[in-house]
Write a structure and sequence with these properties.
Elements: H1 2-19, E1 24-25, E2 29-30, H2 31-66, H3 75-82, H4 86-118, H5 123-169
Antiparallel strand pairs: 1-2
């Protein structure tokens, strides 16, 4: 479901890039498109990232609980299996804050554009717009922090299992 929503969001954004003609800005991008779809795009990307992170964390937990160290002949083959999919978790926790920050920057850009077009805004409207723009950064951090915690825990478990294998082979 989450992956489907992400695909729909990307399709809508691509449609807007090619067919939206009002308020042309930055060589084909429109502020109207940014205003309408930046949240959808950022939330879709972060939603897919959080789904993948949860999927791979559960997969690693199940693998670590069922791994048979006696079935391995050498440490390299074991380490290869123990660290599988940990790179994906690393990429997610490293990049999720940046995706959120991109959403915030684009949201603030829309606010400044609206201020310039309207000739001025009251402080309440600006503050509401800024607070809504910051929600993307908050969501990026909400995805990154638990993924970082899970990554570190799984990496530690991988090291423990690897060390158990070394002790067992002595």
């Amino acid at each position: 479901m989450l992956l489907e929503c992400g695909c729909i969001a990307v399709a809508l954004i691509l449609r807007e890039l090619f067919y939206h003609r009002q308020g042309v800005f930055m060589g084909g991008f429109s502020v109207g498109m940014l205003k309408d779809y930046v949240d959808i795009f950022v939330f879709a990307v972060l939603g897919v990232a959080s789904f993948l992170a949860l999927w791979f964390v559960i997969e690693r937990i199940i693998f670590y609980s069922k791994v048979n160290l006696k079935a391995y002949d050498d440490i390299d083959a074991l380490n290869l299996d123990l660290t599988k999919n940990l790179t994906i978790l690393y990429v997610i926790f490293s990049n999720a804050p940046y995706v959120g920050l991109l959403g915030t920057v684009l949201g603030i850009m829309v606010i400044f554009y609206d201020m310039g077009v309207s000739g001025g805004m009251d402080a309440k409207t600006i503050m509401v717009g800024l607070s809504l723009a910051l929600k993307a950064t908050a969501l990026g951090l909400a995805v990154a922090i638990p993924t970082l915690i899970a990554y570190n825990g799984l990496l530690r478990k991988s090291d423990v299992l690897s060390e158990k294998f070394r002790i067992m082979k002595k």
